[in-house]
Amino acid sequence: MELSLKSARRFVDEIPVSLAVVGVWGGELSEEGQRLDSKFRKALTKLMDELHFKGDFGETLLVPLGTRRTEEKGPGFALLFGLGKKRGVSLETVRKAGAKLVQEIARLGFKEAVTETFLSEKLGKKEASYALAEGALLGGYAWNKYKTSSPSSKRSEKLRLWLARSSGPAVDRAEVVAEAVNYARDLVNEPPNILTPAELASRASQMAQELGLEVEIWDERQIQQAGMGAFYGVAQGSANPPRFIQLTYKPQNPAERTIALVGKGLTFDTGGYSLKPSESQITMKCDMAGAAAVLGAMRAIARLQPSVEVRAYVAAAENMISGAAYRVSDVLTSLSGKTIEILNTDAEGRLTLADAITHADRQGAEAIVELSTLTGACVIALGEKVAGLFSNDARWGREVQEAAERAGEKVWPLPMEEEYLEALKSNTADLKNTHGRSRYAGAINAALFLGEFTEKPLVHLDIAGPAYSEKSHPLGPAGGTGFGVRTLVELLGV
């Protein structure tokens, strides 16, 4: 859907469109709904009473008002939108409402509408405007690039939505952030035969040039020359060569600090010789969701221009099987100089990230945030909605967690238990890339492995659960979710 938002200072009934959306809190019309109800001789409350409409969250009721679309007479229809109990309202309530109402308006076939901003005693104009606009733009996302059939004739392909009594700057910021999230979603949803490492690098370069970011792309020869043996070891089995992507945003004034963002960029993961079952490979185009989140965040950062210098790093590769692929029992030498014995070729992401984290450290990052679809163990621990947060620095960990809370993305801190490091020690090399046959603490051991490649404050976000959804969810359709973009934007203070 092509959705355009317009901020307005006026009330819902003062904007000349055919559909007006008003909220219902706990069975009662909102202030804007009451205003509209009075204007149309209690048409809304009469129908609510007749149909026993209580306004549970997401419940809707379309009410014809019997007018033509004129500025004097107001809208021809009202859509009552259930918001649940007012006492439990949060920004997430409004965000999800924005997504749901856009989908419902499009389903009904309206091309233009106005909605109230769902203000309450707990939520101010700025906060509610931002959450509603962001939710609407995320909820209106669709991935139809490779569909040859036309969409349903009833569903609106274009929608112009007015946000009554909203904050213009908040809506503008929401548009930037939501566009960045949807950019990340597009990258994750691309099929792996299209989005190869070289293509991912090309798109990152194109975005950087468009938005004025510094960009540097290394090919396989430069990766080898740099000494990234762990990264290249994973990549060497594929006919599609790896790329190392580096983007930099610099503020106009001296930077307050320098932050590095690192994203896992496995554009497809077969598991290598430790082959994944076929059903587990179906979603492995999403194994670059960390990279997508980092690139999406850089897109928003370039437009919002924070006072922080931000550097992004993506080690893009495929994990494939061939005569050149790395094997179990191989020993790889990482950029840090540490040697790594391979016990499982499907624990490849941490190898690529080890070299990317080392490089970010050496380039002068004061603190690092890394995002990766790293372990199934984290999904078992926290499910599909919550990312695991691991940090070697309590203050930095809290800062990232608080940013996620403000952004409405769910993360949960898990320990980096140093006693478990013993399981990563190798008799052959410095480290093993997994903790062996044990079924325990897989996500923690992966985080501990990454922590061996920097002494800087590091947060590792294991987004294996929330990065990809196999069915539609409150903020969008099945596929890539763009998880992490909003957290990174909040973290960087823009």
Automatic annotation (TrEMBL):
Xref: InterPro entries: Leucine_aapep/pepB (IPR011356), Macro_dom-like (IPR043472), Peptidase_M17_C (IPR000819), Peptidase_M17_leu_NH2_pept (IPR023042), Peptidase_M17_N (IPR008283)
Q: Which residues form the Cytosol aminopeptidase domain?
A: 344-351
Q: How is the cofactor bound?
A: Binds 2 manganese ions per subunit.
Pfam assignment, any one: Peptidase_M17
Instruction: Look up the domain of life of the source.
Output: Bacteria
Q: Which residues bind Mn(2+) 1?
A: 269, 346, 348
User: Where does the record place it?
Assistant: Cytoplasm
Enumerate the catalysed reactions: Release of an N-terminal amino acid, preferentially leucine, but not glutamic or aspartic acids; Release of an N-terminal amino acid, Xaa-|-Yaa-, in which Xaa is preferably Leu, but may be other amino acids including Pro although not Arg or Lys, and Yaa may be Pro. Amino acid amides and methyl esters are also readily hydrolyzed, but rates on arylamides are exceedingly low
The protein's matches in PROSITE patterns, at most eight in alphabetical order, are given as:
CYTOSOL_AP
What does UniProt list as catalytic?
276, 350
EC class, as a word, reads hydrolase
Which cofactors must be present for this protein to function? Mn(2+)
Q: E.C. number, please?
A: 3.4.11.1, 3.4.11.10
Query: Which keywords belong to this entry?
Result: Aminopeptidase, Cytoplasm, Hydrolase, Manganese, Metal-binding, Protease
Identify the GO cellular component terms for this protein.
cytoplasm
UniProt GO BP: proteolysis
GO MF term set: manganese ion binding; metalloaminopeptidase activity
Function summary: Presumably involved in the processing and regular turnover of intracellular proteins. Catalyzes the removal of unsubstituted N-terminal amino acids from various peptides.
The record's family statement is: Belongs to the peptidase M17 family.
Instruction: Name the chain's protein.
Output: Probable cytosol aminopeptidase
User: What is the scientific name of the source organism?
Assistant: Meiothermus hypogaeus NBRC 106114
Organism lineage reads as: Bacteria, Thermotogati, Deinococcota, Deinococci, Thermales
